[in-house]
Design goal:
- There is one protein chain.
- The chain is α/β, with parallel strands linked by helices.
- 44% of the residues lie in helices and 18% in strands.
- The strands form 2 sheets. It has a 6-stranded parallel beta sheet, with helices on both faces. The protein has a 6-stranded mixed beta sheet with strand order 7-6-8-9-10-12, with helices on both faces.
C-alpha cells in the first residue's frame, strides 16, 4: 500500500509542510532535518505523488527557439521535443515552438515571452548573436529565474553562466571519425578535413578531436577547409581541393554540407577513390552510402534524442525541483553502410 505524506510526517513527528520542504529541496528547514526526512522517506518507501503535484499547479509554459536555416538538422530536434511533450500531455505542459529567421531572434523571443514562460529551450545560434545570452535573460526573467537549456550547442560551457547545455560530445565525434579513417586509408594517404567555421567552439572541437587521434603516430592532414556552413562554398572548395590534390583518399566533413560535397565528388569522378566520413543522418545522404558511393560512415549526433532529453530535463527542473544540469552529454555513434538506412527507417516509422 502506498505510503502517504501524512504517514511519513507522523512517523517523524513533524508537519506535512516540513516534509514537503525536505523532499522538494525548499528552504526553511535545517540541512540535518532535511537529510533525516529523506532517509526516513527512503526507509518507508515513500514516493512523491507526481499526479497530485501536477493537478495542483498551473500549466507549465515551455518556449522553443530554433533557427529557420538547416531544417534537416533542426526538424529532428523539434520532433524529439514534440514527442517528449506528448509523453507529458497529462502533466500540464504546453510547448510553443518558433523557428527564427536570421537576425530576428530577439523579436521572436519577445513574442514568446508573452506566454509568461516557465522555461526556454533554444539552439546555439543564441551564442552567435552579440550579447545573446544576456538578451535572453533580460527579456525573460521579469524577476523570475527562468531555466534555459541550449540544445545542439557547443559542448564546452562557460563556468560563469547559468545556461544548461544538452549536446553531443564534439571532441569525441572527431575522434570517432579519425579512428575509422585510420582503418580506411594507408598511413601515407592524403586526408583532408572540412568544417564550417573554426571560430565556433563546436566546430573547432571536432577538428581537434580528429587531428589529435588521426595524427597521433606521425600521420598528417592537409590544411583545414572552412566552408562557412554554405553548400555553395563547400562545393567550390572541394573542387579546388580535388584539383590540387587528385591523390586525395580521405575526407572528413565535420559539419553540414555533406550532400553538396558528395555530389561534387561523384561528378568529378572521385566517388570510388575518396573515402568520406560525414556528420549527421539525413535522407539526402543515404544514396551516397550505398555500395559504390563515397560515404563509408557518418557520425550520428542523435538530434532527436537531444530534443527529447532537453524537454525531460527542463520538466524535471520545473516540476520537481531537480537542479538543471550544467552539461548533459549525448554520446555520438558511428553509423556504417550496413546500419545507417535501418536507423533512419526506425526513426521515421
Amino acid at each position: 500500500m502506498r505510503v502517504t505524506m501524512k504517514e511519513l510526517a507522523a512517523a517523524l513527528g513533524v508537519t506535512q509542510g516540513t516534509v514537503s520542504k525536505a523532499l522538494h529541496d525548499r528552504p526553511g528547514i535545517s540541512e540535518e532535518l532535511r537529510c533525516r526526512i529523506k532517509r526516513k522517506a527512503e526507509e518507508m518507501g515513500y514516493r512523491v505523488n507526481r499526479v497530485a503535484q501536477t493537478l495542483s499547479r498551473h500549466t507549465l509554459q515551455i518556449g522553443v527557439l530554433l533557427p529557420e536555416e538547416w531544417p534537416d538538422l533542426y526538424d529532428e530536434v523539434a520532433d524529439g521535443i514534440r514527442d517528449e511533450v506528448q509523453n507529458l500531455q497529462d502533466y500540464n505542459v504546453q510547448i510553443h515552438i518558433r523557428t527564427v529567421p536570421e537576425g530576428r531572434y530577439e523579436q521572436v523571443l519577445r513574442t514568446l515571452a508573452e506566454y509568461k514562460l516557465d522555461g526556454l529551450l533554444c539552439s546555439w545560434f543564441i551564442d552567435a548573436e552579440p550579447d545573446g545570452r544576456q538578451t535572453v535573460r533580460r527579456i525573460l526573467e521579469e524577476d523570475r529565474d527562468i531555466p534555459v537549456l541550449l540544445v545542439v550547442s557547443d559542448a564546452s560551457k562557460r563556468q560563469d553562466d547559468a545556461f544548461g547545455i544538452v549536446a553531443s560530445d564534439s571532441y569525441l565525434q572527431g575522434r570517432l571519425a579519425a579512428e575509422y579513417m585510420r582503418h580506411l586509408v594507408p598511413a601515407n594517404a592524403a586526408v583532408a578535413v572540412m568544417t564550417g567555421q573554426l571560430a565556433h567552439t563546436d566546430h573547432r572541437r571536432r577538428v581537434d578531436g580528429f587531428r589529435d587521434t588521426y595524427c597521433r603516430d606521425g600521420r598528417t592532414v592537409l590544411p583545414l577547409i572552412e566552408a562557412q556552413d554554405q553548400p555553395q562554398v563547400a562545393e567550390r572548395k572541394v573542387r579546388a581541393l580535388l584539383a590540387e590534390h587528385p591523390e586525395l583518399q580521405g575526407l572528413y566533413i565535420s559539419t553540414g554540407n555533406s550532400e553538396a560535397v558528395c555530389r561534387t565528388v561523384m561528378e568529378m569522378g572521385f566517388g570510388d577513390r575518396v573515402h568520406i566520413i560525414c556528420t549527421d543522418l539525413f535522407a539526402g545522404i543515404l544514396p551516397y552510402m550505398e555500395e559504390g558511393g563515397p560515404v563509408d560512415a557518418l557520425v550520428y549526433q542523435d538530434l532527436y534524442r537531444q530534443g527529447r532529453k532537453a524537454v525531460r530535463l527542463l520538466y524535471d527542473a520545473l516540476s520537481g525541483g531537480a537542479p538543471l544540469p550544467a552539461h548533459t552529454s549525448i554520446v555520438p555513434q558511428l553509423l556504417l553502410r550496413c546500419n545507417a538506412a535501418e536507423v533512419w527507417r526506425r526513426r521515421h516509422t
